[in-house]
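Handout, section B. The chain below has 198 residues.
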Amino acid sequence: MTPRRLIIGMSGASGAILGIRLLEVLRAAEIETHLILSAAARMTIAAETSWSTQAVERLACVVHPIGDVGASIASGSFKTDGMIIAPCSVKTIAAIAYGITDDLISRAADVCLKEGRPVIALFREAPLHVGHLRALTQFAEIGGVVFPPVPAFYADLQSVDDMVTQIVGRVLDRIGVQNDLVKRWQGLRSRPTTGESP
């Protein structure tokens, strides 16, 4: 039986901690991870976090060079449960949407889509112009899942760390990985007010 396997792509968009937290959780869940870091992702990790690239790579089971388009994950015959790109840049979403598979992130995503496997993109950009929206629409039309890392304000999150954890939990929900990271909606209930107008 094939073990649970996920491909994790990290592009150079802001939000490197999303990919790092995802890898931490999947490692604890003993799910086999195949990591691809773009050159820009390596820079973003250094700029935004206290993590070294080497420490991030140690969270993954297998690390593939971005230029290795002959890697195992570049073939549909290599079974996986899909791919999560966290964070996902405009360049990466456009490459996948329009079939420009000139690196391993876009190639692995293309393979997952052609095999009917989920590809979830935590797209990190704002505001959006029409070119962004067209690429996102094309990505969705070919089977990708656009998953902007939007905070769940209803969950009464107290910190950025809470927000990151909630987002990662929801992404794992979407790809079918059981987790207890999510503060789940229990319906509207009365809450004490501060006396301020909404």
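Note. Residues 160-175 form the longest helix (16 residues). Compare this with the example in section A.
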